[in-house]
Amino acid sequence: MNTDKFCMEKTKLIQIIACLAIVILFWIVPPVEPMTTVGMKVIGVFIATVLLLSLVDTVWPAMLALVLLSRTGVTTLNTAISGSFGSWIIYFVLMSFIMTYALNESGFTTRLVAKFMSLKFVSKSPWIFTFSLGALGMLLGCFMDQVPAASFMLSFCSKIYQELGYDKKDSYPNIANIVTIFGVNIGGAMTPISHSLIILGLGIYEGATGKAISLFTYLAYGVPTGILLFILMAIMIRLFAKPDMSKFKNFNIENVINKQNPMDLKEKTTVFIFFATVVMWMLPGIMNMFVGSSSFVKALNSYGITFWAILSVVLMSVISINEKPIIDVADIVNKKINWAILIFISIGVYLGSAVSDKATGVTDFIGEKIVPLTSGVSPMIIVLIITFITLFLTNFASNVTTITVMTGVGVALALSGKSIDPVAIALTTTLCGSCAFVCPSSFATVAMLHGDDYSNRSKIFKYGIAMLIVTTLIVTFVSYNISSMML
Fold it and tell me: What's the family (predicted)?
């Protein structure tokens, strides 16, 4: 007869005990002025939570963090709950997930692939075709969550390899997979549309400064940066990769693209509502360029981006075609939403604002103790270091954790008097925190790339590390400088 007993994996138990020991240590160690006792306790909770989320679990540590923060003196439990899971950011991400699901269900994503891959220029040469796969992945990554985009593209590419007659050990599929998934991840870093990581970074900045970064501002930063990164990736792959492309001789893309029927009313309506919402997200930023802070722009800003996202979901739920609504929102919420991700993001947003709270003294500590260490150091060198650390961490560990930590550090350093633009550095750490290329532990899409039968891990590491270096240089010396001049 089996006897039940309390038992846990030894490594996990040690990790949990070590993290709780960190909390205890920071709660009993005297603070270093101007940091306060409250600040020491919050820092302890911050470090322990980041480690628990990275090493142990992605849900319950976020819940524990709320309880611990409520005992630090920086907040109450109800306020912490309201500021985390009750934040507008979480509701916006939820609405974005529903909108993206509706777009996929309508068949528009599949139609977009068929249309793009049937363009004449795509089949002009094997290299053009390969980079077109990456460009398609980037396009999908711009408008939908990277994980379903990566899953769709890997499946689509698999059909192509089979039609071409490539074996899983052949070099061409290895390179094509890298180009495609790197394209998806670059696209995901380019826009805040349906991308919770970007919203997380923007939320941390808002929590620390009390000011918001518009979606248009992020697009003005992210889109040119992403396009430049994709072009440089393509050039690098073209120069150094030597795959066997001989099997393209008699290849016909029509063999792997399903014939598309005309768009039905449901698909047309879904697409219209989705992209009309995207336009309303960007319109205030665009209008501000031409008419400044006019009453019309102020009126648009008063609605906020969540208003249009909610309205979009409501419209899709109410508008019925053949007596059926476009989406069954109850079914989506109950069965299709990853609530663990929402909880994970919620504590990431709130931890940043808790650390930056005046009661902690953390900002004053950075100003008095850390900023002087950078005296005589060029602001661009500081930006370079922050950019590299962000990219390094996000390529080997959790990107949510990286964005939470590095955006908080970057903004705090900028606000402490160093001549670093706080908006530009927040944009930089947010984009870089979304650029994962190297390890499976960095992001689900990279794990999918490593696990695909047509992938070669050594090549992924080789080109992934190269992209880490390229991204560091481009974001630091091009994107940051341009954004700081524009803002």
Answer: Belongs to the SLC13A/DASS transporter (TC 2.A.47) family. NADC subfamily.
User: Are 246 and 107 found together in one domain?
Assistant: yes
> How far, in Å, CA of 85 to CA of 340, rounded?
11
Q: How far is CA 246 from CA 18, 131, 198, 379, in A?
A: 55, 17, 41, 50
The pTM score is: 0.70
Side chain identity at residue 167, one-letter code? D
Summarised one tens digit per residue, pLDDT across range 126-167 is 899 899 999 989 998 888 778 778 877 887 788 788 878 888
Residue 411 near residue 365 (C-beta atoms within 8 A): no
- Cα 464 from Cα 469, distance rounded (Å): 9
Q: Are 57 and 98 contained in the same domain?
A: no
Say whether both 243 and 295 belong to one domain: yes
Kindly state whether residue 183 falls inside one of the protein's structural domains: yes
Strands 324-325 and 320-321: antiparallel
Which tokens is 80 given? 């912490």
Of 301, 317, 335, the position where a domain reaches its end is 335
Token pair belonging to 338: 């990853």
How many angstroms separate the CA atoms of 150 and 444, rounded?
A: 9
Last residue within a domain, chosen from 282, 308, 335? 335
Over the chain (487 residues), the average pLDDT of each successive run of 10 is 80 93 94 89 88 81 92 92 82 82 83 76 84 91 80 80 82 93 94 81 85 86 95 95 84 71 91 87 70 73 83 95 93 85 75 77 72 74 89 78 82 78 92 87 76 86 94 93 74
Convert the pLDDT of each residue in 198-220 to its tens digit.
888 888 888 888 888 888 889 98
